[in-house]
Amino acid sequence: MGSTRGKNYWYALSKVILSMVIAVLIFYPRVALAEEKQPEVIYVEAEYDSIEQIWFGSELNSRYFSVAKDGKYGIIDLNGQLVAPCIHETSDVDNLEIDGKHGMFLEDGTYLEPRSEEPLHFEHGYSRIVVDKKYGVIDREGKTILEPKYLDCFIYGENQFAVQIIDRDGYELWGIVDSEGKDILRPGYTNLGLMELPLT
User: Fold this and answer.
1) Which residue blocks in the chain are alpha helix, DSSP H?
2) What is the pLDDT of residues 151-161, one digit of tens each?
3) Which of 62, 101, 113, 158 is 20 to 30 Å from 31 by CA-CA measure?
4) Do 92 and 33 fall within a single domain?
5) How far apart are alpha carbons 185 and 163 in whole angstroms?
């Protein structure tokens, strides 16, 4: 008799334990999923025709979004705030264009207002800029490093810029200046192709 009761006891206990194990296996994954961090969601007033994530090169950015309204493009942040106004003719962050003027939106959130007559291209942290057919240089914050006053210019090295001027006799001559516009190599050369870097 006692043996039968013992068997029944252990049988009932095993069923309880089995039920608990099954419950854990069923419900634990659900709890774990519920506790996972959910992706951030932005709430934007229904005033845009489209909203898309932005690519910087091959990387998809999750902080900024391209928006379109009435055929014009802008950029908003995670709070739905405009960080680049919805006035551009293109949605390409590397070439935001208005009426033939080119700007840029950088991955760190810096908006470079379109004012260059050619697309910007950064090298060593600088890009040349064209205003009224004259060339200058800006940095990644949009600060003017060299005023647009040269016949031509390009980034020659770190903090070195090749600039072209027209001298009094009408010759187009190249020289090298630093980030303060001071001469490293006084303009007097028709070609800088064979110069070695850095020039000090």
Assistant:
1) 2-35
2) 999 998 889 99
3) 62
4) no
5) 10
